[in-house]
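Incident review: delayed structure delivery

Summary: a single-chain prediction request sat in the queue longer than the usual turnaround. Root cause was a stuck worker, restarted by the on-call engineer. No data loss occurred. The affected request and its eventual output are reproduced below so the record is complete for anyone auditing the incident later.

Affected input:
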Amino acid sequence: IVNTVPKPKVLEREEFSMVVTMIEGDTFLGRICTGRISSGQCKVGDPVQCLTKEGDKVESGRITKILARKGTGKVELEVARAGDIVQVAGLSKATVAHTICSPGVEDPLPAQPIDPPTLAMTFCPNDSPLAGKDKASSKLTSQMIRDRLLTECENNVGITVQPSEERSEAYDVMGRGELQLGILVENMRREGFELGVCPPKVLFQQDDSGARLEPIEEVVVEVDEEFSGAVINKLSERKAIMVDMSPAAEEGRTRITLECPTRGLLGYRSIFFTDTRGTGIMTRAFKGYEPYKGDLDNIRKGVLVSMKTGVTTVYSLGKLQPRGELFLGSGVDVYPGMIIGEHTRDNDLEVNPIEAKQLTNMRAAGSDEKVSLVPPREFSLEEMIPYMMQDEMVEVTPTTMRLRKQILDSNQRKRSGKK
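Output delivered after worker restart:
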């Protein structure tokens, strides 16, 4: 290994400098920055500063701890020199692509910038009638949600959190895709959190002339030749433009490169795996901002909304089946404003899913016919997030997930819809 692997390339200067390539949070040490030292050396207690890619000073401080990997564990170092890969503690604002260096250094080291966030979702406390009823829930308050999100920011450079301007006690969480944000929600759910999640919104920008710009992603898919037509057709409907199409390394497979707006990729992952029978491979990377590509066709129908509080019955759901596809079966708690199915038409329909059959002594032909319910459509969290419309949200608890309207009261919903 010593004879084959080349020595690390270092800069010929005495001042200490290194680019941060990874960050993590520690309860005792605070923020820990990982990187390879490009020049000089550092010791515990040395004064350092943090510079952005443009050379602006972020903060200054002293190195409180130097750690290095040894096998699967960590060891403390008193001195680290150019070429060493180390972890440094002592700076609270340094992040990936920043340069940590001696106070006399003015020029930052070149670094690959972090892709900007392209999506935002609002996390808020659960305010539904069933809030706190889940026995597995242990973290319900906005303060607990805020602390957990800030902890996530310490370890995940792709996520940014700020207080929401539209809802009180809520937080806008910005990331690079619905999958990344969905993983965060799933982790919080398993940790005992109960919260409400609003639908994802694409982060637009404006150019110098005031025109709207939207994030564009480069999508590379590798599929069997027989499925390439379906993939291209579906992505074209979502405003994607094909850039390249060539045979893949594996015989019988095709590699397709496309450029697609971020909003067009919302909810496409599950459709992609269905179309390719689970054999497709899809990767996406942020490309840049380009002029707005135009509105997407509405590909979703209206929903069936509960208007009563209670437990669903077979008798009532049987009568609602012709109205659309149901999302839940019998014996499930519902409340006004909760979404129980998808309507066959484009408008929302308020229904009563808890009506029980009236038991009487009277007999009539056909009154005792057996009701057979179609199995309800079950959603994963990854499918729920892009399914939501702008006036809806997901109620997430450790054991269940429910789709609901943001405004539960029917009259208030109608008034807000007229504005």
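Verification: The CA atoms of residues 148 and 300 lie 33 Å apart.
Action items: add queue-age alerting; document worker restart procedure.
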